User: Fold this.
Amino acid sequence: MLVLSENYTDTIPRVCPTTFTVSQWFMYNKLSLNLTKTKYMTFGTRHKAGKMPSTDLKLGDASINRVPEFKYLGVKLDTHLTFSNHIQYVQSKTIGKLKMLSRVTNFLPENTCFTLYKTLIRPHFDYCDVVYDCITEANARKLQRLQNACIKSILQVPKRTPTAEIHSISKMQTLKERQHFHTAVEMYKVEKGMQPESIQNMFKRHSEIHNRHTRRSVSKVIYPPRARLNITKCGFRHRGQKVWEAVPDTLKTKPSILTFKTAYGQI
Assistant:
């Protein structure tokens, strides 16, 4: 359940009726909520989040505690959406598998090792990377070093081999390139009207903003959203428009997601 508001004082009055409706729905359907797994979080900038008092919400007769971080659908969320805890979680999941991979590179063909990497390790990097694409450069380097270590282990090259060289030899995308690829796929779905309504409504065409006859309005180009703060620029709405604008027009007209992915990989 997500409640949006400009300030904290407006948030609580909006949340309370919603929690009451949820508790009534559970009661009428003779269901019970696992309160040990039910928490609530507040999101905001460091300045605003520091002013929010800790308040326990009520769900029926039970209290819902506020937590500074929470794992939701495999992604660790924090109050400021820095995703630092999630990066540490991904590191812990991949380091063990990297050690396992390094033990078998001397016995298995190179193609088989790359298949193991794509099957066992890369999914941890790929999962929800569109969501945490706004992480700091320091956190991004932590993940990139892990991917570099995997590729160097498979290619059996010295540890000081330049990153550009190993990616050129292996024909593997960097994690930032894969994030842009996944963002482009999501924007392709927006372009074709395949996303849920909540995501479709995040983007508008030039023709929806003004009535002036311009080349962009005729071509139905997505209007670039205004972003004053850096935290806004990190949002999917802003990043998605930037990535989609860089995609060649020949790819945007592909008839299916499969052909789009294939053509994008050949750029």
About this structure: The longest strand covers residues 69-72.
